[in-house]
Design goal:
The chain has three helices and two strands. The protein is mostly helical.
Length: 103
């Protein structure tokens, strides 16, 4: 599609920042033996993952449609990059928090 690369990097970077920031302020639930550490906001991850799968399906459908679906594929890719950044940023920050707690 010959689109500039910066919107994709911006979507991924903003997702990483927002996901990491959200994870840093999230309350952790820990059992009494420190065997299971759970973040409090588990439903959010399900919604983000659902949006990521939907964006992937829109991208696949846009590829099947042909050139008319390119605009949908562009936006679906931006949404997928942002969702991936949110999930990865959250995972990195949460792993760092847990590592500090048990280390």
């Amino acid at each position: 599609m010959k689109q500039p690369v910066w919107p994709f990097w911006a979507a991924l970077g903003s997702g990483l920042v927002v996901g990491g920031a959200r994870s840093l302020i999230m309350k952790l639930e820990v059992d009494q033996y420190w065997l299971v550490v759970r973040p409090a906001g588990r439903r959010t991850v399900v919604w983000i993952a659902t949006l990521l799968v939907t964006a992937a399906l829109v991208d696949i459908a846009g590829a099947e449609i042909g050139p008319e679906g390119n605009i949908w594929r562009y936006y679906a890719t931006l949404v997928a990059a942002a969702c991936s950044g949110l999930l990865f940023g959250r995972a990195l920050a949460m792993a760092g928090r847990v590592w500090r707690l048990i280390g």
